[in-house]
Structures are given as C-alpha cells and as structure tokens.
Amino acid sequence: MRPRLNTALLAGFLLGLFIASPGAAQDATVVRRAAFDIGAAVIKCIVADVDVSTGLIVNTVDSRSEKVDFAEDLSRSYDGNLSKEVMAQGIKILERLKAMAVERNALEYSAVGGRLFQKAQNGRAYFVRIRQETGIPARIISEQQAAMLSFHAARHALADKAGDLLVWDIGGNSMQMTIRKDDGGLLFYLDPMASVAFKNVVIQIVQNKDINMTVSPNPVSSEEASQALAYIQSHAAMTVPMYICNRLANQNLTVAGIGGVHYYSVPEVLGVRKAAYTRDEVAAALKKWTGKTDKDFNSEYAESRLTNLILVLGYMDALGIKEVHPLKVNQADGLLAAREFW
Q1: pTM
Q2: Domains and CATH numbers, the chain
C-alpha cells in the first residue's frame, strides 16, 4: 500500500505546483509556445498560449521583432553564402528572443525560415548551427508552406469576418499571394520580387548603378519613379496567375496585407494607421516622398521606404486592387497552431 500512497502524494504535489506556477495554463490542452519566424530582414518571436486540441491561439503573451539584414547580405555575396557576421548577429538575436520566451514561461519552441535560406549555399548548415547553439528546433520550409502558414494566420486574425480572402505577403526577399480555390484547396503565387529585391532592381536597372556599391536608391527622381512603376506593373501583369486576376476583377475579395511592407512600411510613409489603405493614398504618398533622401524618411529601413510604395502601387494598379487591409500577423502566428511543427 505504501508505494501507492507515495505515488498519489507525489501526483498531488506536482499538480499543485503546476496550478501555482505563474505561467501555467489552467487547461491541460493549452500549452505556452514560442514561435520564431526567421525572415529575410527581420526575426520575429511570438509567445502565446495555444489550445492544441483546436489550434486556436487563446492568448498572446508577448511579441518581439529585431532587424537582421540576411537578404541584403546575401545580395552582396560573391559566392552565394551568408557572411559570418550576419549569421552571428542572427544567432545573438535568437538567443535574446529565446531568453525573453523563457522568462514568459514558454514550454515549447519552434522556428522556421524560408526561401532565402534555401537559396544561400550555407543556409541549411546555418539552421543546423541554430539548433545546436540556441536549442531551438529550427527548419527551412518551402514557399508553399510559408504561404499556407501566413494564410491561416490571417484567417485566424480576421476571425472568419473576411468572407472571400486574398492574403498578400511582402517580405524582404519573397512575395506570396494565397487564395482559396473553388475546390477548397489553396492557390499560391510565389515570387522573389519583394522589398529588397525590388529596391535592388531600381538601383541596378532604373538607375544603372552597382548594387555592391550602392545600398540606397534615394533620392529617386520623378522620372526614375515612373520607370520603376511601369516596370513593376508589367512584372505583376505577366506573373500573377489569371485565376487570381479574375477573382479580383469579378468578386468582392478582402485583400489582407501582411509582412513588414504592408503593416509597417506603407502606413509609416502614409503618416497614419487605419484598418485599410487605398490605392489613391499610396499614389499620393509616392508623389509626396519622391526625391527625398534617406535622412528625410527617418527610419532604419529608409533605403526601401520609397521603393516599397512603388512596389505596392504597381501591383495594385496591375491587378485592380482598390484597398489593402494590413494585419499584424506573420508566419510565426500560423506556426503556433501548425501541429506538424511541434
């Protein structure tokens, strides 16, 4: 009888500790997780309580992001490798964000990185290093997986209020559009023409400068802005699938803009944050900020602020998008509830 008594006492004692613990969830199906999105220009971390039985985020505890120029670094690489310096910076940031998550009593950790790390010659080796040095389970995911995570994160944020939904994600080194097809599956538009890539197009093709010698295109003249806009309009018209174009033209879709360009860059330059921004507001901002220097933008991302406006306006014009609803969600939000990553 004694072993049974001791086992019961021990179980009761441990249950008491769990309930008394400041970060413990009251429901056994709720787990506090830390999700890391290792992006092309920013590393994001979200700590949240997730109901693992339903995949719903019950409570967001903390959300942090820090800049790290993986895309910019790789674009200037002579051998297709990420530099030692930028990799060390990324490790340092991940360690700092993980320490924050530990303080918030996170019990499970998962990190993902996308296309840029597939492209980098040492990208996969870098993710092995991340796992070894930080202890965070980290993996490189496909563009389709990344777009799927973003779509479900946006759908969750809108709480099914959007009806038909197109999720438009613009990051530092990749762009995705995701829409649900009539058969219930998802259709993905995947393109490398994103913030850093388009900025370098403006420098290299429009301004005829060496991107290895020139980091910022600013100030951009009116003529250069017009050339860049025509370039990206043509690119969008030729590359976006006809199914998406037709849905945008024939139905009332909610266009949810996610990623740093939609949520931070455009509203920052517009000077106002609203539930949606319009095509005409972006065009007016472009006219206002054309010819400005990096100093005028007063941002650590000054070099891409104007070209981001051109990029977004070009796609809106080419596809007939009248307004975009920016959402503060990213792959980390979708990652929190994706069972296969935990």
Answers
A1: 0.75
A2: 27-140 (3.30.420.40), 159-326 (3.30.420.150)
